[in-house]
Structures are given as structure tokens and as C-alpha cells.
Specification:
The structure is a homodimer. By secondary structure, chain A is an alpha/beta fold. Chain A folds into two domains: 4-52 and 351-394, Roll (Urease, subunit C, domain 1); 54-345, Metal-dependent hydrolases (TIM Barrel, Alpha-Beta Barrel), CATH 3.20.20. Helix content of chain A is 36%, strand content 23%. Chain A is built from 13 helices and 16 strands. Chain A has helices at residues 79-92, 97-110, 129-140, 163-173, 190-204, 216-233, 246-249, 252-264, 282-287, 311-321, 327-336, 339-345, 368-374; strands at 4-11, 17-23, 26-31, 42-52, 54-59, 113-121, 146-152, 177-181, 208-212, 239-243, 268-271, 292-294, 360-363, 380-383, 386-390, 393-394. In chain A, helix 6 packs parallel to helix 8 and helix 10 (311-321) packs across helix 11 (327-336). The longest helix of chain A has 18 residues, at 216-233. Chain A binds chain B through residues 69-70, 72-75, 273-277, 300, 303-307, 316-317, 319-323, 325-328, 330, 365-367, 369-370, 373, and chain B through 69-70, 72-75, 273-277, 300, 303-306, 316-317, 319-323, 325-328, 330, 365-367, 369-370, 373.
């Protein structure tokens, strides 16, 4: 760990050779002419590529089985199969959300992620137990990891009476963001569900991040209701729609009308870029000025065994999903797990510039695209000014 | 290296603890009761998971840039952009198909692949130069790697006069399979192109492996012409259709009629499971008795920077593309890069049974699905009875 240090001989994405001076956990200066100060520890970057600490825009730390014995998945294919199976499994398996969220958080840091937005299940069986586990992990990791917690009604909200009150308590207990889930297809009443969500968010002055898996026309219907409320309540810039599969299903004309409103209302979109589902059109969204960013979604849980806590691999999967092959296109995939995700989640002081938090990743790669496709081990990770990883291993 | 050895304490996919005795490059016996013979070297597998050597069903060893300085991709989006760019780049960059195919082959072996079908470009500018390079690699690797070479007219066949003659020479020079490419959309004359392909294959008594990128109705049209010729010429079991994107585009009824004929004629299908394209329906094909298998396609070349020579990662991508989450489903993804690929390409003596070639991979994983999603380093690789990898490193 180091409060102040000088990192020389690193390359930026544009190829420029620079040095970075860090003091008090912040980037003090970055550029080709930044000279070491006497008495400040110096580190030679070995001409490695310098990237900003990565941002995980959407995961579920509390439900992962990372590092535990293999979970044999024999779950049915429906969303409700997966929800029910998980709730039962978490109750009966001894799954420990504190230990698991900590294990996965460490693995994220090990791979260069310094900011995480995690959705945490709140339901009438578990109450706030998972939230408490993740709040403990946030506290343990607070020096190096900037974590946003979304109170997430995974089992539905209106359909399970008592959930609204639990979400209310979760926001009071330290959750930063109010989550929500499929107001029509899970909750069964899109108007009442969205009204309850917005009312609760407004009362706590918290932003919203909604899981919207609803496809095609029903998803578009729910999305229009949501946008109406963002507009009426003045929550521009305070809402993320996660997944938004419907935007990949609709005819161009209907989709573009929705995208125009999404852009106007500064609603951000999150995609995990699943290869088996329709996805929002990445480049079109960006061209319209929409912030669209990336996340893993669950990692090795009862929903799905896939995923690793490495945002370079997620960027690769985003690149493959959107058929991004050119170097300048693959830089967009990396943007989804760095700048765009920080913007979409409002992580403060992000980036490689003076005044930003010193979250730095060094990799042996020739370009950003090379880093994304090769996913080399992290040569060095600095989180909040602290040295946390060398040669791929946590210090 | 060892001609004969005894491998004990390994687990099969079904959890059974077994030993394997190997003699003369073959599996002599495998089972729970197989005892070591006096004087035969013994190896303790450490309770690792035993998998058969992996099969790469479709790659392009000759055009990879693996291990070389990063290639900055600034290529246009059309198939013809990519074909033209590559032909020019290979001519002017000093790209060496012998060195590159050898580097990539070694990396494949390092990750446990012991059988490869590679398509090699044959065109009127390069002639048989790339084929000669890959034939050299095959010779160098012959003790450990079973390689099939497809003579592939990447720049088109009829549209570039002289290509048929080159393919004829390529088959005479050692190519095992005749390749082909988009008879309608590249060659411009599906009937004449297919006729020339089948005539040439018949003359050399070689099987066919055709790249069919043609989408929707035009792909279906070409595919019907192809199936007619398989039937008329009695080439059942001797044709692979690679990619076959059209089978992911068609309405179910039209698609199913095609699938019935494909099954009857024992035509096999290859998919790289690209996340940005329609793909043949994996489970439906299997249910109809069609052999459908997996491959990487190109790895880090001028077409695309993606891909690694690790068939476990390809199995993972296949699993993600087809939304295979259950353990029994992920076993299908692994089948695509092992048994099904060996069957589709007619690799001889494949598998974990007495009499098969001793191609063995050990990984620290609890189940096959675990191996696919975690892609652990290969603890041990035995290729054709020879120890080639320990702890992830080539011996």
C-alpha cells in the first residue's frame, strides 16, 4: 500500500507514454512530462498498457457460489423456476451471502475491478439477511472497492405482500439504489408496481435500477409506463433499465421512438450482452446519446454457471455479441465496462485524469483491443491509491 | 514421453473413479479394476477429471496471427472486404503460414486438443504456398496431433479461374478434404459451383466441407442443391456443412424439412456458435439424429481478433450461445468439441475406451460442466500415448 507514489513508463490507449503521480489516493498528475518528486516511492510500469480500474455495472454478489463446491444445475427453464429454485436453495443449503459476496469481491479486485454495482435480493423469506451480508462485505472492502448496493425484489414485489416494507427498510439500512423486476410479467400489474417503485424511490431520494426482462411489445409497454414516470417525477438521469431485451425485439421504428425518449430522459441502459437473447442495439443507442454499459449479471450461481469476475472477459463477450471486430469498435466494448459504466451508475471521480480516484490497472497488451481479447493477468492493480495486485495475485 | 504407462486415480464424467492402462499409444484398458502391470511407469492422477483429448472441428491454422505483434483491425464490414483485405495483407506483411500454423498447433496441444480439422486457403495469388506451410506443420506435429487439412477456396472458386486446378493439385498434394465457399453469394452460380466441387471431390474420392454463410432463403436454396448432389452421388456421410446460418433463419416448417433430409443423408453440421448470427438449432438437430459439432473458426486473424486455441472455452461459448445452463445440457456443449466432432470429421479411434488412441486430458474440475465454465489449466495432456503437457505447460 502507498499513499503517494510515482508510476512511470506506462502507455495510454492512444499509445502515448506517460507517468502518473498519485497522492492521497488521487491522481495528482498524468502525462508525458510528469516527473517523480523526491522521497516519493517510484514504480516502473515496464511499458505496460495503463487502463482505468474496471467497473462492474450489474452483478449479484450475494447469490454467487464462487469458490464453493460445484452446484449441479437441474433447474427448469422458466424465470419463475429459477427464482423459486434459488429461494429454496438459499434457505436450505447454508449458502452464506457474507462469505460469498466477499469471496467474489476479492476476485473482482484481483482482476482489476474497483467499482461494483450489485443487486441484492430482498424477499419475505430472507428479509434483509443477504443485504446485511453484502453490507458487511462493503465495509470490509471499503478501502479499495467502491460498491453500490441495489435493494432488489428478486421474488417480485407486489405479488409478495410485505416486500415493499422490506425494500423501504433496505434503503434505510444502507442500500443506495432501489431495484425492481418485471412489473408486468412478474408482479402482474405494471402500473401499480411501477407506482410503488417510484413512490418508494422518491421518498428515499434514491435512484432506480430495474430488471426488465419483458420481451417485445409487453416490454415496450412497461418501458413507456416507466418513462412516463421518469418524466412526470423529474427523475431524469436517475434511472437505469437493466437488460431491456425488448429493445432488441422491436421493429426499428417503434424502437427508435423509445430510444429518443430514453435519451431525452437520460435513462441509462445496462446489458450483459447475452448471446442467446435479443439485446439493445449498442451503437445505435450510443449514437443517440444514450449511456449503455456492461455487467456480468450473476456469476456462477443457481441461475447460471457462467461468468467470471473479470470485466475484460465481459468486454470480450460484449464485443463478440455485437460483432465488434475493428480496434476502434472493441474500444466501445471496453468503454462499456469502464467510462460508460461509471457514468451510468454515477460512480464519482472516475477515470485517468488529474483529480480522479487512483484506480489503475496495468496489463501486458499492445492495445485496448488486445487486452480485451487476450485478457492477460493483471500485472498491477491500484485501487483507491493502494497497491492491491501484483502479477495477477492479491498482495 | 512414454509408450506404456498406468494412470490411476482419475474420475470419469459420471463420477466413477478409474485407472487407465496405455500401451503402444492406445488405451489398453480403462475402468475401476484396471491394475498396474509390473515394470510399467505409473502416474497418479490426483483424483482429477479425465476427459478425452479435445477436437477442433473447424479452424484456419494458416491465417492466424497468434503470438505475433497485434494486428490493428480496420477492415470493412462485408465478407468481400475481409476476403480482399486478408489476401492483400498476407501478400505484403510477410505472414508465414508455416510458422503461424505451428505456433497455433502447439497452443492447441497445450490446451488439450489432439485432433484438428483446419481449412487452408488456396487461391490464384498464393497458389499452394499456405498448404505447403500447414503440411509442414502437420509433419512436425504428427506424433501428437491428428490433423485433417481442407483445401479451401477462400477467395472463391469459379469466380477466380484457375482455382479448380489449384484445388485439384491441393488434393493430390495431401489435403484430406475438399473445401468450398458460398456457391451463390461468392461464386455467383450455385449450380455450376456445386457441380465443380462435387466433381472434384468424387474424382479424388475425398469428402467435402463447405463454408455456407448464405443466410435465409438463399442459403436454403443452396443447401437443397447440395443435398440433391449428396443423394445423387451417394456421398452420404461424406459432407460437412460449416456454419449453415440459414438454418437459424428459416421458419420452423421449412427448416425441419431440410433437417430431415440432412439427417437422412448423414450430412454433419459445424457451428462456431457466433453470438451475433443466427445459428442452427443445436438440440433440435441432435434430436433428429444429425451430428452437429463445434469449432473456433479463425483465431486472432485479420477477420477477427477473437478466439483462443482452447476447446473448453469454445464449449463455454457454445453453451452460452444456446443458453445451456443445466449440467446435462452443458455436457452437450462439451460433446460438440469431443465425441460429436470426432464423429463429424471421421477422426478414427476416438474416445475413452479400450482400443482408442490414448488422447487424455486431466483437469481439476468437479464435473464436465465445471471444466467448461472454469476452463482450468490442463494438469496433464497425453497425446497419442505421449505425455505432452504438465501443469499447463508443454513438456
Amino acid at each position: 500500500m502507498a499513499a503517494s507514489f510515482h508510476l512511470s513508463n506506462v502507455r495510454l490507449a492512444d499509445g502515448q507514454r506517460v507517468s502518473v503521480s498519485v497522492a492521497g489516493g488521487r491522481i495528482e498528475a498524468i502525462g508525458p512530462q510528469v516527473a517523480p518528486q523526491p522521497g516519493v516511492p517510484a514504480e516502473d510500469g515496464g511499458a505496460a498498457l495503463l487502463l482505468p480500474g474496471f467497473v462492474e455495472g450489474h452483478t449479484h454478489l450475494d447469490k454467487s457460489n464462487w469458490g464453493r463446491p460445484w452446484y449441479r444445475n437441474e433447474v427448469g427453464p422458466l424465470l419463475t423456476d429459477r427464482i423459486g429454485n434459488e429461494r429454496e436453495w438459499r434457505k436450505t443449503s447454508g449458502h452464506d451471502s457474507a462469505a460469498q459476496s466477499l469471496a467474489l469481491s476479492r476476485a473482482f479486485v484481483q482482476a482489476g475491478t474497483t467499482r461494483i454495482r450489485t443487486h441484492v435480493d430482498v424477499d419475505t423469506e430472507a428479509g434483509l439477511r443477504y443485504l446485511e451480508g453484502v453490507l458487511g462485505t462493503r465495509q470490509t472492502m471499503r478501502d479499495v472497492l467502491d460498491m453500490q448496493i441495489v435493494a432488489f425484489p428478486q421474488s417480485g414485489m407486489l405479488k409478495r405482500p410485505g416486500t415493499v416494507e422490506l425494500l423501504d427498510r433496505a434503503l434505510a439500512a444502507g442500500a443506495d439504489v432501489l431495484g425492481a423486476l418485471d412489473p408486468a410479467l412478474i408482479d402482474g400489474d405494471p402500473v401499480a408496481s411501477l407506482n410503488a417503485t417510484f413512490e418508494l424511490a422518491q421518498r428515499h431520494r434514491k435512484p432506480i435500477d430495474i430488471h426488465l426482462h419483458e420481451p417485445g411489445e409487453i416490454g415496450a409497454f412497461t418501458l413507456r409506463l416507466l418513462l412516463d414516470r421518469v418524466q412526470a417525477l423529474g427523475m431524469q438521469g436517475e434511472v437505469v433499465v437493466s437488460h431491456a431485451f425488448c429493445l432488441g425485439d422491436l421493429a426499428d421504428r417503434e424502437r427508435d421512438v423509445l430510444l429518443e425518449r430514453i435519451a431525452q430522459l437520460r435513462v441509462a441502459l445496462l446489458t450483459s450482452a447475452p448471446p442467446s437473447r435479443a439485446v439493445p442495439p449498442l451503437k445505435i443507442c450510443r449514437d443517440k446519446g444514450i449511456t449503455i454499459f456492461g455487467g456480468n449479471d450473476g456469476i456462477r450461481d443457481t441461475w447460471s454457471p457462467y461468468g467470471v469476475p473479470d470485466m475484460l472477459e465481459r468486454a470480450m463477450l460484449i464485443g463478440m455479441r455485437y460483432d465488434l471486430r475493428r480496434d476502434d469498435d472493441i474500444a466501445i466494448a471496453f468503454d462499456c465496462v469502464s467510462e460508460a459504466a461509471a457514468r451510468g451508475c454515477h460512480f464519482a471521480d472516475y477515470g485517468l485524469h488529474a483529480g480522479a480516484r487512483a484506480d489503475l490497472v496495468l496489463v501486458d497488451a499492445q492495445t485496448v483491443a488486445h487486452a480485451v481479447v487476450a485478457r492477460p493477468k493483471r500485472k498491477l492493480v491500484v485501487a483507491n491509491g493502494r497497491f492491491v495486485v501484483r502479477d495477477g495475485e492479491l498482495i
